[in-house]
Amino acid sequence: MEIKADEITKIIREQIEEYRGGVDVSEVGNVISVGDGIARVYGLEKAMAGELLEFPRGVMGLALNLEESQVGVVLLGDLAHDLGFDRVIELQTWESFSHGNWKVTLTPSKHWGARTLEKAETWVPRYAGMT
Asked: 119 vs 33, which has greater pLDDT?
């Protein structure tokens, strides 16, 4: 039996044209926390390291840290923009930002455990001129 390259090429092209790709949603998890560009997600027992995951609003993430009860996911892209914010100001601890009559000062908070959005830093709004 002789193998002919043009026949193999024809078969491969036909298979490519007939291919219908799709997304298989086999599991839906719950986000436990988000902080520093990492999401901890519960309920993804079948997730594999390196798997691309989709979050609401089109935010994508890469599953990296697979633990028994949760998956650590690195969020890809500009998360603030993906969530609909058109302007984000990053402040260092004790730095202030004023907007109209409002003054926001980033102050540290006392907390236990890992940094999360709820526990990382406390934003204290104050009227401009107040200390």
From this structure: 33
DSSP string, the chain: ----HHHHHHHHHHHHHH-----------EEEEEETTEEEEES-TT--TT-EEE-GGG-EEEEEEE-SS-EEEEEES-HHHHTT-S------TT-EEEETTEEEEEEE----SS--TTTSEEEEEEETT--
> CA-to-CA distance for 64 and 84, rounded, in angstroms?
26
What are 28's two structure tokens? Answer: 């839906």
Q: Which tens digits make up the pLDDT trace of 51-89?
A: 888 888 778 888 988 888 899 998 887 766 666 666 667
Q: Which residue has the tokens 């044209």?
A: 17
The three state secondary structure string of 14-29 is: HHHHHCCCCCCCCCCC
pTM of the model: 0.47
Q: For the chain, which domains are there?
A: 29-84 (2.40.30.20), 96-127 (no CATH)
